[in-house]
Amino acid sequence: MIFGLASGLFFVHLPFVKLAGMPVTSFRTFPGVLFKRITKLLGIKATTRRYLNKEHAMRDLDRLLLEKQTPVGCVVGMYYLPYMPKEYRFHFNGHNICVIGKDEQADTYAVLDSNATQKVTLSRRELLKVRFAKGGTYPLLGQMYWIKSVPKQLPDLNPLILKSIHKVCWYMISQPGFIPYVGVNGIAYLSRSIRGWEQKMGKRRASLNLAQLVRMLEEIGTGGAGFRFIYGAFLQEAAARTGVAELNDYSKRITAIGDLWREFAFKASRIYKRREGESYTYDDLGDLLLTIGEQEKAFFQDLDRTVKEYMK
Question: Between 54-66 and 124-131, two packed helices, what is the crossing angle to 10 degrees?
Answer without folding.
Answer: 120
